[in-house]
Design a protein that fits this description.
The complex is a heterodimer of chains A (358) and B (320). With 358 residues, chain A is an all-alpha fold. Chain A is flat and about 70 Å long. The two termini of chain A are 48 Å apart. In chain B, helix 10 packs antiparallel against helix 13 and helix 13 packs antiparallel against helix 16. The chains are: A mainly alpha (358), B mainly alpha (320). Chains A and B meet through helix 1, helix 5, helix 7, helix 8 and helix 9 of A and helix 3, helix 5, helix 6, helix 7 and helix 10 of B.
Chain lengths: 358, 320
């Protein structure tokens, strides 16, 4: 099955390459004169443009640009412009292109037809129960994972912050899983959740529960995945909160003490409200990690179809594109996922901008 | 690996309730109140929680399959009759070329994205140009961190399919490099492009705290913007480069999605190690957990070494 898929994909690439080559031959003469002929400026083109601006040495243009944009504009351009163009092309150019593809009927092995654009794929997505299930699962995964990882990470940070011995050792151990690949942790958790010999079922067995088929049970698998992700990333939340806790002046602790507040009350009333900034930035990063859970789900089953009940938009999109070659449909799902991410990131970036952190 | 062995004994101690570390900690606590005892018990329980999956994987990798696995507890070390190194040899044979391939794109992509991120951060912090125009450039770069990669996958395949990269690299194929290595060049450039935003943000938080007088003075002395970078900013960035390189290397080495899309099969000669590991389950020995665990450790080894050696820098990288 896999071999067929790969040969199909290779053929697809060859076809795409062939069409590109013939297209180039058609207007080969123009390429020499027009650096941006393709409409997709590559990094090289960008460098040419930049060099043209400065190397041409025509003071008039440089001065005029600097007058308009600021003193160091042209001089600093070689530094920020190439990375900016690369990101612009690969991120924003690709998203725009993805949107256009989602309006076509592109599927199978013949390239997209850009002459017939409509929202048919979005209508199809809304009526597809698979997409709706995946959206619900994505939402559950992101919310549950973020909430639990935040709470757990905060608890860890408070523990570590209580003047304990070997503080660095414990911190290093708690953060260790984050340095591992999703592919690696998926192997570990597959073994942890193993029906007969896994640690989870053996521990539960000692209190008379189970054994439970964590991966095979469609109503449990999503929560099993959330638990594994919390294991992997609560160390991250801990580090963020720890930095936040250390930034709070000692007087605040002392003042609360003088007022006679209990430790619990002190944290709840005085300390935690001051961690708002840490909470927001950690939550955003956790949500992004949750959207990347594709790697984990793929590795659990070594394939595009995650365990029943754990399909999220990220896995659904990749499956539609690379397993069944419904490119346009996959692009439409990708746009839905992108809009979900944007609805979280947009307000965040606006908030950061208002705080003057950008 | 010494640290992993240490973890293992740590785990065994707290599970068994006897042994060196637990005793030492208990001695330390002898004079303390109940509150401190509860605190340390909680912290040790958390340590067990975080290490159990790793420890269980490590001991399992040394057991025979299926007898050793099914007749011992998953977190118990292998008894002599079930001990074997065979799984490590098999895993190494399967993953060895993947390790080389991963290094071939992870190292250049890490260095390039860190450099470009540093350039971008310098051009957007220390350069004096109008905030009205600088703001949007900066916002677009920062927002790039949070893009779900699924939103760019189909265009990415189209783009690399249309690029005549394979023809451009003909000299390599003539030298005997398999043509599948085109995929690694694609992976390098892709990872550089998507890595720039996070690198830029990390460097930017650092450059904003660089003393402005020093740079201002150099500029007034007539040093060009480029010269200030080479002579002042780049040398003082060394600590931040350590942070960024470590963070980026871990991210790129660990990423599966782009490897899956651009190289696509684990049978390809250019397959990165994560791709082969993810596919181990599909092979005949799919349910051989001992092999899977050995494979997982081999694939994780470079990032584990980096983490154990540079834990502080890694923590700084993720916290920013």
């Amino acid at each position: 099955m896999r071999d067929i898929l790969s040969s199909v994909r290779q053929r697809l690439r060859r076809v795409a390459r062939a069409t590109r080559t013939s297209g180039d031959a058609g207007h080969g003469g123009e390429d020499g004169t027009d650096a941006n002929g393709g409409g997709d400026p590559t990094l090289d083109d960008g460098a040419v443009v930049t060099d043209g601006g400065t190397a041409a040495g025509s003071d008039g243009i440089v001065d005029r640009l600097d007058d308009r944009f600021g003193d160091d504009f042209t001089e600093s351009a070689p530094f920020w412009l190439p990375p900016f163009l690369l990101v612009g092309l690969f991120v924003y150019g690709a998203i725009a292109w993805n949107f256009v593809i989602s309006l076509t009927d592109y599927k199978g092995f013949v390239g997209p037809d850009y002459s017939d654009l409509d929202f048919e794929m979005y209508v199809r997505a809304i009526n597809d129960s698979g997409v709706i299930d995946a959206t619900v699962n994505t939402f559950l995964l992101v919310v549950a994972f973020t909430a639990v990882a935040l709470a757990f990470g905060l608890a860890l940070a408070i523990l570590i912050d209580r003047n304990i011995r070997f503080e660095n050792t414990f911190r290093t151990i708690y953060l260790l899983p984050m340095s591992l690949s999703f592919v690696v942790t998926a192997q570990f958790w597959l073994w942890m959740y193993n029906y007969n010999n896994g640690v989870v079922n053996i521990v539960l067995g000692t209190v008379g529960v189970g054994p439970i088929d964590w991966i095979g049970n469609s109503s449990l698998v999503l929560w099993a995945v959330v638990f594994a992700l919390v294991w992997q990333f609560s160390g991250y939340t801990m580090v963020v909160y720890l930095a936040g806790l250390r930034a709070i002046p000692t007087e605040h602790y002392e003042a609360a003490r003088v007022d006679g507040a209990s430790t619990l009350k002190m944290y709840w009333r005085v300390i935690i409200p001051q961690l708002k900034g840490s909470t927001i930035s950690a939550a955003i990063v956790l949500m992004v990690f949750a959207l990347k859970a594709f790697d984990f789900l793929y590795s659990l089953v070594s394939g595009y179809r995650p365990p029943n009940g754990a399909d999220i938009l990220a896995t659904k999109m990749v499956r539609e594109a690379y397993s069944t070659n419904n490119w346009a449909y996959a692009s439409a799902i990708a746009i839905i996922l992108f809009l979900m991410a944007l609805s979280i990131i947009g307000p965040y970036l606006y908030y950061e901008y208002q705080q003057g952190n950008l | 690996m010494s640290d992993a062995r240490h973890d293992e004994s740590d785990r065994a101690d707290s599970a068994g309730g006897t042994g060196g570390l637990a005793d030492r900690v208990r001695d330390d606590l002898a004079g303390l109140d109940g509150y401190r005892v509860a605190l340390y018990v909680t912290i040790l329980t958390m340590t067990v929680f975080f290490l159990t999956p790793i420890e269980s994987g490590l001991v399992t990798a040394f057991k025979t399959n299926p007898d050793g696995i099914s007749s011992t507890l998953p977190f118990a070390p292998p008894p002599p009759q079930f001990f074997t190194l065979e799984k490590w040899q098999t895993a190494m044979a399967a993953l060895g070329r993947g390790m080389v391939n991963s290094a071939l794109y992870a190292v250049p992509a890490t260095i390039l994205s860190a450099l470009l991120g540093s350039f971008a951060a310098y051009g957007l912090t220390q350069a004096d140009w109008r905030a009205r125009y600088k703001g949007p450039v900066l916002t677009m770069l920062v927002a790039g961190i949070f893009i779900p990669y699924q939103a760019v996958l189909v265009p990415l395949s189209q783009f690399w399919g249309a690029m005549p990269l394979q023809e451009l690299l003909t000299p390599l194929w003539v030298l005997g490099v398999p043509e599948a290595y085109t995929g690694l060049v694609e992976l390098t450039i892709t990872h550089v492009a998507y890595g720039i935003p996070i690198c830029m943000v990390l460097f930017r938080s650092y450059y904003r705290n660089v003393s402005e007088e020093m740079i201002e003075a150099a500029r007034l002395d007539g040093a060009t913007f480029r010269r200030v970078y080479r002579r002042i900013v780049f040398p003082i960035s060394t600590p931040m480069f350590a942070v960024v390189l470590i963070y980026q290397f871990t991210q790129i080495w660990n990423d599966l999605l782009f490897a899956l899309i651009l190289v696509s099969t684990e049978s390809s000669p250019a397959a990165p190690v994560v791709l082969i590991l993810a596919g181990l389950g599909e092979s005949m020995e799919g349910q051989d957990f001992a092999l899977r665990m050995a494979g997982a450790f081999i694939a994780a080894l470079p990032t584990l070494i980096v983490y154990i050696m540079f834990g502080e820098e890694f923590a700084e990288g993720v916290a920013t």
